[in-house]
Every structure is written in C-alpha cells, then in structure tokens.
C-alpha cells in the first residue's frame, strides 16, 4: 500500500512550521542567526531573490467557493549551500510576503540548512524554536495592546440609558 509514512508527514509539518517561522520573523533576527551560525557553508544563488505578485484567494465562509481577494507582493529565493558542516550540498527555496530580497535570501539559506541531515536538528533548536518564541511574544503583545482598546458597548448603553432617563425627568 503506497502512501505517506508518519515520519514523512511529520517532516512535512516541520517544514511548514519552519517556513512559517522564517517568513514571519524579522529580517534582522534571521541575519543575527546567520551571523552566529558556526561553520557557515558557501552560498550559491540559484534563483532570485526576486519580487513578484501572487493572487490571494479567499473562501466564502472560510470553506465555500473561492474568490479573488487581491494581489500581494511576494519575494522568492533559491540557494544551494555546500561545504561547512553540511553532509552534502543542499538546496533551499523560500517565499516571503513583501519585497525584502535579503529576507527571502536568508529564509532560503535556513531552509537549505533544514534540509540537510547534519544541520537539521541545530536549525530547529537554535533558529526555528527561538523565532517561534519571539513571534509568540510579539503576537501576545499585539493582542494585549488591542485588548486595551476594546469598548464594552453594553456598559456604554447602560450609562447612556441612565443619562437619558434623568434628562427626561428634568423636562
């Protein structure tokens, strides 16, 4: 019976998780991790980095028919890494929202490092997990800041209802 093994499914989920961390992280954070990387391999740019447009689609109600929502700028890059701590030459491709070519290039480098067996675990422990933690902290701060601007309309309605009743009594 053909199909995907659990290990392949886990690897796919891990690649998606890493791609999300690389693309959502600030460029400066990726650059910092790259500069701190011990025994950096040689980098050969195969494609890009090049910005372009993609059509963003939505679904009615989240699950219904698709519709075109608009266009978004995306930058892609593909690199080949060789030497350093790599077991073999490795290729990585990354897409990031926006037109930051350096961000796309750095994300592609870490994608290639993730693909190599010799550096896979190090990328997860030293790059992906810290980036995810920083993103979670940033998201938590944004939610907290947004929460402070929430207006309780039921309270406003009760306060106004009392003011209107006393105004009518004055007449």
Topology at a glance:
Elements: H1 6-24, H2 27-36, E1 42-59, E2 66-82, E3 90-97, H3 101-115, H4 120-147, H5 153-170
Antiparallel strand pairs: 1-2, 2-3
Helix pairs in contact: 1-3, 1-4, 2-3, 3-4
Describe what you observe in this structure.
The chain has 171 residues and is an alpha+beta fold. It has one domain. 53% of the residues lie in helices and 25% in strands. The radius of gyration is 24 Å and the shape is globular. The chain has helices at residues 6-24, 27-36, 101-115, 120-147, 153-170; strands spanning 42-59, 66-82, 90-97. Strands 1-2-3 form a 3-stranded antiparallel β-sheet. The chain starts with 5 loop residues before the first helix and ends with a helix. The chain has 5 helices and 3 strands.
Give the rounded overall mean pLDDT: 83
Topology as H/E string?
HHEEEHHH
Oligomer: single chain
Number of strands: 3
**Strands of the biggest beta sheet: in what spatial order?**
1-2-3
What is Rg?
A: 24 Å
| Broad shape | globular
Number of helices: 5
Structural class of the secondary structure composition? Answer: alpha+beta
Distance between the termini: 85 Å
Low-confidence stretches: none
Describe, in short, the structure shown.
The chain is α+β, with helices and mostly antiparallel strands.
